[in-house]
Design the sequence.
């Protein structure tokens, strides 16, 4: 399974970015996809997750600002990030929870929010 993420970059506080992550090569199917992030010196934390039937959950810190969605036909997950704040600065990692029981990670894309 391969995950290809894109959409990171530099944005001013209050701005928006949209991350995309396309999964390929899953044989058993995809249970869920999501995004984690890791800021310098911190642990990798869940940002948002969406299941194959559309169920979602979000970190409290992003509720109301970030929206996760997916296109099952394209095996692609999106993260729309609005009202970005400097504390959202991190490397964002895409994850796929495969029906085989394995988890697969993308390489990460850097999001930098300037104040």
Sequence:
């Amino acid at each position: 399974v391969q995950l290809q993420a894109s959409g990171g970059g530099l944005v001013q506080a209050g701005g928006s970015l949209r991350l995309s992550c396309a999964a390929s090569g899953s044989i058993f199917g995809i249970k869920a996809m999501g995004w984690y992030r890791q800021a310098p010196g911190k642990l990798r934390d869940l940002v948002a997750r969406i299941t194959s039937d559309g169920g979602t959950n979000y970190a409290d810190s992003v509720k109301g600002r970030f929206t996760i969605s997916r296109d099952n036909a394209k095996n692609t997950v999106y993260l729309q990030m609005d009202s970005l704040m400097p504390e959202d600065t991190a490397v964002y990692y895409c994850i796929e929870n495969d029906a085989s029981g394995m988890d697969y990670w993308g390489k990460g894309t850097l999001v930098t929010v300037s104040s």
